[in-house]
Amino acid sequence: MNNWIFGDFFGNGKVDTIRWLMRDSAGIEISNSSDSVQFDKLVELRGSQNPSCYLIGSMTPNNGIKIASNKQLNGLTFFKNEGDLNNDGIDEFSYVIEWLDQSNHNTFHVSQIKVSQIQELFAFPIWEWQLYDLQESESLVNKIESGKIEYYFRNDDFEVVTAQIKLPN
Fold this sequence. Notes:
Layout: E1 4-7, E2 16-23, E3 29-30, H1 39-49, E4 52-57, E5 65-69, E6 73-83, E7 92-99, E8 105-114, E9 117-127, H2 129-132, E10 141-145, E11 148-154, E12 160-166
Antiparallel strand pairs: 1-2, 2-3, 2-4, 4-5, 6-7, 7-8, 8-9, 10-11, 11-12
């Protein structure tokens, strides 16, 4: 999973760097590496840490911008620059939070940074295994015309469904 993305996230014509990280309830950065930890031990560990996930970048406040906070939070499982989807001069990014639960349901978020806050433009439900089918250059959203995207998801019958939406500026 990529912790870093690059793009013009502030509309100033410059390439910005954004990464996500986790901090415990005391504000200390914690590792998101959990490959060698058994699931039940990881749930216990995260519960004691009460983690929050932040975006840190070249133009974010020093303490970062909080994405989420929850005892079942284990970082992000997907994080990608989607380019300027709504033609406002600011690159949007997508992410999926990694929850420590036994569910395969999750939410795909399309957002941007405005005035040092995350502004969610659109979110839709997904099955987590959809992410594993994606190649590194692919996403579940595609710009089809100025300010309009097509997104892909699977319905309850596991069929691939596409829909379109106009994004706000």
